[in-house]
Design brief:
Layout: H1 11-25, E1 36-39, E2 56-61, E3 66-67, E4 83-90, H2 92-105, H3 116-143, E5 145-151, E6 157-163, H4 169-174, E7 175-177, H5 189-203, E8 214-218, H6 220-227, H7 230-239, H8 245-249, E9 253-257, E10 261-263, E11 273-275, E12 282-286, E13 291-296, H9 299-307, E14 314-316, E15 323-329, E16 334-347, E17 356-359, E18 362-365, E19 371-375, E20 378-381
Parallel strand pairs: 1-13, 7-17, 8-9
Antiparallel strand pairs: 2-3, 2-6, 4-16, 5-6, 8-12, 10-11, 12-17, 13-16, 14-15, 15-16, 18-19, 19-20
Length: 393
C-alpha cells in the first residue's frame, strides 16, 4: 500500500517540479553549444575525436594524472556510454514528521513545508546530470579530454579518461601557450590574444579581410587580468574608449564570462568549488552549435516509450531521458529516490578542429631565486645562465 506521502513525492510530481526550475535556476552557459540529444546508441565507438579519430578510453589514476599501464584494460568497441546514477532517501523519522503535517494541514501548502529540504536535495540530484554534462563540455573545449567515474570491464568502479586528441594533433595545432602568466599588467596580453585569434582564423579558414565571428570564453579572474593590461589600457586611450570589450568587438569577437562551477567534494566543513573554465584559460570557438550531449536511453525508458506505459514509481525527463524512480520500503518505512542518466559529449564532424584555446604560463621561483616558467608541467629556466661557484673538494 502506497505511503500517504507518495501523493506528493512521486516521479510525476518530482519531474514537474524539475521542469519548472531547470532553465531558470539550473541553466548552464555552455549548453547551447552542446545541447542534449536522445539516442538509442549505447556505445562510445561511434563518437569520434580530432579529425575523425577514435576516442580513446583509459583507466587512469586521478591523483597522478596519468594512465595506469599494465593494469586493467577497457574494451573500447563495447564500452557503454557512462551512467550517472545517484539517490536519496526519506527516512522513517522524516516520513512520520511529514505525515503529521499532512494530517494537520490537509491539502494546504503548509503540509509540504517538511518536504522543502528534500525537494532541494532532489533538485541538486537532478542538477548533477547537467553539472556532469557541463563539465564534459568545458573540459573538452579546454583540454580535449575529461575524466569520469564508471564501471570497468571487471565490474569494479574506476576513473576513466576519455581522450578526443589521442595523437596530440589538436594540442599541436589548436592550443596556444601564453608567453606570460598575465598577473603583471606589463605582460603583453594583447600579443597573446592576437596570436590566439590568428590561430583561430587559420583553423577556420578566415581570409585576411574576413570576419572572425568567434566567441571568446574565460572566467572573471582572467578577464580582470586582461582589463588591467597596460597594452589594452593604451589601446583604449588611443581609441578614446572606456569599454575593454570594444577591442574584441572590433575584431568581430563576442565575449562570455563564465564563473559557473561545481562542487568537487561532498560534505565536510570546507566544500571545494571548481570552476568549469579554469583561471588563465581562454577558449575561442565558433559562435554556433558544436555538437551534442548524447543521452543514451535505457531499456526501461525505451520500453515505456514504445508501449506508452505509465508507472506510478517510474517516470523520465523528456529532455535528457533521465529516469526517476521511487521505491517504498517497510520496516522501517522509507522512500528511496534514484535517478539514472547516460550522457557523453560528441562533436559534430569538423567542429573540434575549429576550436582553439589559450593556456596560461605559470611563473615560479627556484630555491636559488631563479625565475622559471612552468609550461604544461615542464619546468623551463627563463633567467640568464646562473653563475654557480663550484664547492671545494
Amino acid at each position: 500500500m502506497a505511503h500517504p506521502v507518495a501523493r506528493y513525492w512521486n516521479p510525476t510530481n518530482l519531474l514537474a517540479i524539475w521542469r519548472g526550475v531547470r532553465d531558470s535556476n539550473y541553466n548552464k552557459l555552455l549548453a547551447p553549444f552542446f545541447p542534449y540529444k536522445r539516442t538509442v546508441e549505447e556505445k562510445v565507438r561511434t563518437i569520434k575525436g580530432y579529425k575523425n579519430t577514435n576516442v580513446i578510453l583509459n583507466l587512469c589514476d586521478p591523483d597522478a594524472k596519468r594512465t595506469i599501464r599494465g593494469a586493467r584494460k577497457l574494451s573500447f568497441q563495447d564500452y557503454e556510454i557512462p551512467e550517472f546514477s545517484e539517490g536519496i532517501k526519506i527516512y522513517a523519522s522524516e516520513l512520520r514528521e511529514i505525515s503529521r503535517f499532512v494530517d494537520q494541514y490537509g491539502h494546504l501548502p503548509e503540509s509540504l513545508d517538511c518536504l522543502d529540504q528534500k525537494y532541494i536535495d532532489y533538485l541538486e540530484l537532478m542538477n548533477g546530470v547537467g553539472t556532469n554534462a557541463e563539465y564534459f563540455r568545458a573540459e573538452l573545449l579546454q583540454y580535449g579530454k575529461f575524466q569520469f567515474r564508471n564501471r570497468t570491464d571487471d565490474g569494479t568502479f574506476g576513473m576513466i579518461q576519455a581522450d578526443f586528441d589521442a595523437d596530440k594533433e589538436w594540442a599541436n595545432h589548436n592550443v596556444y601557450q601564453a608567453q606570460a602568466d598575465w598577473e603583471d599588467p606589463a605582460d603583453d596580453i594583447l600579443a597573446d590574444v592576437d596570436n590566439l585569434i590568428e590561430m583561430f582564423a587559420l583553423q577556420n579558414d578566415v581570409q585576411n579581410d574576413g570576419k572572425i565571428n568567434g566567441l571568446m570564453i574565460m572566467n572573471s579572474v582572467t578577464w580582470a587580468r586582461m582589463k588591467k593590461s597596460e597594452a589594452l589600457q593604451e589601446w583604449l586611450w588611443n581609441m578614446r574608449s572606456t569599454d575593454p570589450m570594444s577591442y574584441f568587438r572590433n575584431l568581430g569577437l563576442s565575449l562570455m564570462i563564465d564563473n559557473q562551477g561545481f562542487q568537487s567534494q561532498l560534505g565536510g566543513e570546507h566544500v571545494s568549488q571548481t570552476k568549469f573554465i579554469r583561471d588563465g584559460n581562454v577558449c575561442l570557438i565558433p559562435n554556433m552549435r558544436l555538437g551534442n550531449i548524447i543521452c543514451s536511453e535505457s531499456d526501461l525508458f525505451r520500453g515505456m516509450m514504445r508501449n506508452q506505459a505509465k508507472r506510478p514509481d517510474v517516470d523520465y525527463d523528456d529532455q535528457t531521458g533521465t529516469v526517476v524512480r521511487t521505491v517504498e520500503s517497510t520496516d522501517p518505512d522509507t522512500i528511496k529516490t534514484t535517478i539514472e542518466a547516460h550522457i557523453f559529449p560528441a562533436f559534430d564532424k569538423g567542429m573540434f578542429e575549429r576550436c582553439c584555446v589559450l593556456h596560461p604560463t605559470h611563473k615560479t621561483t627556484r630555491v636559488d631565486n631563479t625565475p622559471v616558467l612552468k609550461v604544461n608541467g615542464d619546468v623551463q629556466i627563463t633567467a640568464d645562465t646562473v653563475n654557480v661557484t663550484p664547492s671545494e673538494p
